[in-house]
């Protein structure tokens, strides 16, 4: 398959979804200072807001992940975007903290579904030689959205009345979702999913349409490497998928889950640590907090771009091991300093490393799971990750409350990060390299070498 303008459009359409997910995930850290004052909230209630969000993502990742395997990728990545927009609007009109929590939880269901549907879809269209780089660029929408949320939060918090500022911030996410919905409509159903359903004619028509976007020279070089007969429709139940993932594909599912747990615990743990512990401990005003998130998110974007290069240049296994190890060691930088600049440098290093790590992890997870269970498997790994995201804020704030200093919270964060480098080391030794390998070949040979 040649690279065409369709593939470029797909990067934008799916990457925007990740940016919006990140915008919603990160904006709470920027505006919580205002909400805390307006509704007289404690740090513990702030942790509850983060935990409710990630629990909703957990449920959405599993539920929508299976639906994406059952009913198709396109229906789900359109439905989750509309669901997100609807409940994001309702969040704007929250009248108290309880209503805010409910609407945030409902919005999180769609974001969890995005994780499953988008990560399953992104590699199924891309030529194998470009798959790692392209997937990484799509996933780099997350730090881009986080950077945008910090910039928007800084502007609205410092230029609008407090009660209005956070509502405008959440409302902008809704506006962007509706604006880009029509772009995502141009992405067709995954040909690989259609083949899995036995709908060969539809799959071939979509492939022909994509090739039609290429130049005549590129189209002439396009090679069909799949047979036109022999595909048997498979309509499987949710529990069949779960049984397969914890049976035949258990090694891949466990590795993907370990990657997700580690990165989610670090991402949400360090977000809570900065918003509820480090910045307040350092007496940083609420209106200035978004500036520090901008620094971290800029570093995260650099981590995403680094991943887009190194997953191809170094290979998947090396990128995984180095990035997860770097992230874990970066936590020690904050632990070893007591100054605000030192903590900010450590925070930026963590953001750089964890973004590089989770992008590498998602690329590998999407490549080593077969098409018929790919979205369900990714949904389960995301759900396991959300367990880490729920546990991390609660553990860190409790550790801080018991000691009164950030050091004990950082030790807890270090422990939660360890499954990532351990799983990466295991995959380095036992897993297969999936760089420049078709999805079908990668998902077949990975299990053989990993068991």
UniProtKB/TrEMBL annotation:
Chief location: membrane
Protein name per the record: MFS transporter
Pfam families: Sugar_tr
Domain Major facilitator superfamily (MFS) profile residues, every copy: 10-435
GO molecular function terms noted in the UniProt entry: carboxylic acid transmembrane transporter activity
Subcellular location: Membrane
InterPro entries cross-referenced by the UniProt entry: MFS_dom, MFS_sugar_transport-like, MFS_trans_sf, Sugar_transporter_CS
Organism lineage string: Bacteria, Pseudomonadati, Pseudomonadota, Betaproteobacteria, Burkholderiales
Domain of life of the organism encoding this protein: Bacteria
GO annotation, cellular component aspect: plasma membrane
Annotated signal sequence range: none
CDD domains assigned: MFS_SV2_like
Topological category with respect to the lipid bilayer: Multi-pass membrane protein
Organism: Paraburkholderia pallida
Ribosomal protein as UniProt keyword: no
Protein's UniProt keywords contain Transmembrane helix: yes
Keywords recorded for this protein, A-Z: Membrane, Transmembrane, Transmembrane helix
């Amino acid at each position: 398959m040649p690279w065409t303008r369709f593939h470029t459009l797909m990067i934008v359409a799916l990457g925007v979804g990740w940016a919006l997910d990140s915008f919603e995930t990160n904006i709470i850290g920027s505006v919580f200072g205002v909400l805390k004052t307006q509704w007289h909230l404690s740090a513990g209630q702030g942790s509850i807001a983060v935990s409710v969000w990630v629990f909703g993502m957990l449920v959405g990742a599993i539920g929508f992940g299976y639906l994406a395997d059952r009913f198709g990728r396109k229906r789900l990545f359109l439905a989750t975007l509309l669901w997100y927009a609807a409940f994001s609007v309702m969040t704007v009109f929250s009248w108290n903290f309880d209503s805010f929590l409910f609407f945030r939880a409902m919005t999180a269901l769609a974001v969890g579904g995005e994780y499953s549907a988008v990560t399953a879809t992104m590699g199924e269209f891309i030529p194998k030689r470009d798959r790692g780089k392209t997937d990484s660029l799509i996933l780099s929408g997350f730090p881009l959205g986080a950077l945008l949320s910090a910039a928007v939060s800084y502007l609205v918090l410092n230029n609008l009345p407090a009660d209005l500022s956070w509502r405008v911030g959440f409302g902008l996410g809704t506006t962007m979702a509706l604006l880009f919905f029509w772009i995502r409509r141009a992405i067709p159903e995954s040909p690989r999913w259609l083949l899995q359903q036995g709908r060969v004619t539809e799959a071939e028509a979509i492939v022909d349409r994509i090739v039609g976007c290429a130049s005549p020279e590129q189209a002439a070089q396009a090679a069909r490497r799949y047979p036109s007969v022999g595909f048997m429709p498979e309509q499987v139940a949710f529990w069949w998928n779960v049984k397969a993932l914890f049976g035949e594909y258990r090694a891949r599912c466990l590795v993907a889950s370990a990657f997700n747990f580690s990165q989610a615990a670090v991402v949400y743990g360090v977000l809570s640590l900065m918003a509820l512990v480090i910045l307040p401990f350092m007496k940083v005003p609420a209106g200035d907090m978004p500036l520090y998130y901008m620094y971290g998110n800029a570093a995260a974007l650099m981590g995403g771009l680094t991943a887009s290069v190194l997953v191809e240049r170094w290979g998947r296994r090396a990128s995984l091991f180095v990035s997860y190890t770097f992230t874990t060691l970066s936590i020690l930088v904050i632990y070893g300093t007591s100054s605000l600049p030192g903590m900010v440098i450590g925070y930026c290093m963590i953001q750089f490393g964890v973004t590089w790590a989770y992008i590498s992890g998602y690329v590998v997870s999407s490549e080593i799971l077969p098409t018929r269970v790919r979205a369900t498997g990714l949904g389960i790994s995301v759900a396991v990750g959300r367990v880490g995201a729920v546990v991390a804020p609660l553990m860190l704030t409790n550790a801080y409350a018991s000691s009164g200093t950030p050091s004990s919270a950082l030790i807890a964060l270090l422990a939660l990060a360890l499954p990532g480098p351990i799983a990466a080391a295991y995959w380095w030794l036992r897993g297969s390299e999936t760089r420049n390998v078709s999805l079908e070949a990668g998902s077949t040979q990975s299990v053989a070498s990993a068991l």
